[in-house]
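The material for today's practical consists of a large collection of protein records. Backbone structure tokens are a discrete shorthand for how the chain folds in space. An example says more than a description, so a record of this kind follows:
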Amino acid sequence: MSHHERVIEAADGVSLHVEQWDAEGEPKFVVVLSHGAAEHVGRYAHMAERWNANGGIVIGADHRGQGKSGGSKGHVDHFETFARDLRTVIEASVESLPESSRPDKLPWFVFGHSMGGLIALVYLLDHERAVPLAGAMISAPLIEPRVKVGALKRFAANVAMTIAPKFAQPTGIPVAHISRDPAAVAAYAADTRRVDVLSAGWLRAMEAASTRVSAEVGSIQLPMLWYAGTGDEICDHKATQRLHASLTDAEAREQTYREFKGYFHELHNEPAIEREVILKMLDTWIETRRG
């Protein structure tokens, strides 16, 4: 496996830290990663290495305000900005790869987890046809947070949105909520690359993106695999279930939903036996759509 890093510029000049894991042998597909809040793309190395062994090239960037990328920590003005960054990453990757690995030669997929799942959905609303894709994998998307914002916090957030939208505070999400695997939780807690704050502007942008996706998701034509765990205390799996159920002709479009009883938020970082179920599902889904 070959792993390398580079920095590219977003449309507004913000630096985006990009990582790429190359396929073992001849490339057969490409996966573009969109990570969640309070983490970074490097946390997906174990998934990238697995896909590398299956012939996949894996590419992803730390979102602006996250990890090693530029921008105000934990802040974004609109999720459409995240989506435009994702397009920049994809288009830059198309140009940097050999012609034999470009989307007209190999199937390209997007994988989005949590906040990254919501970003992927906004990307598909705005840029679905920009670069040909074979499908999208949407993991525990941030459609609706499980923890509700209280009235006092909502008032404070509304004030901050008006006078200081970049003002950021700790997420307050217990690290134990990410996984039932103690080793995964310990590694997450010790990870100094994570940006564990979110701004008032981010909250407003997230809510606007969720509202928009809920209203417009039926326009997405791409095959999609949605999945979530019933034990998720961070993102409400029922909101994901309801949103998928609202899709018309979902079966005809190959837009499927799977639910995993008791699984926590990071299904791909659950204990080994449970994690393998998720990774095998993703392998099979990609293999089916490789043509």
